[in-house]
Amino acid sequence: MDHVHHYEITVTWTGNTGTGTSGYRAYARDHDISGQTKSTSIAGSSDPAFRGDPSRYSPEDLVVASLSACHMLWFLHFCANAGIIVTSYEDLASGTMRLNPDGSGEFTSVTLHPRVVISEPSRIGDTAALHAKAHQFCFIARSMNFPVTHEPIVTASLALGTSSKT
Question: Which CATH number applies to 59-165: 3.30.300.20, 3.40.50.1000, 3.30.420.40, 3.30.365.10?
Fold first, then answer.
């Protein structure tokens, strides 16, 4: 039996500066993203290249963030199941989007750059292999029509404060 999950998010435009969309430059792209059971909202806008507020998250930012977070959550799950203790995880993920002459566009790739620290040097190889498994299981990456790659760096904390990496 298939299990189906549904997600409901409310996006509310907050960029009416007084004249609505009376002209392309007459309104802000600001919006709030919220969910009925969420404790906070996300301040959104368009990319600054499209008259957006650079201090707010764009839909493009959120695509990259969703891919990064999904990969991380699966990776941590698989590490926990394998008895690998992760003490730190940070990903500087990047995405590339192409604009077409007609004004449309699409992502052409996203690359994740997770930097992981584990507690046991002998498990570095096992840990690196779990990134491939996390990629296979990530719901978001499986839904994309462009390549999502990962270039992990795994290190281990050693007793003398040095690290080993692969």
Answer: 3.30.300.20
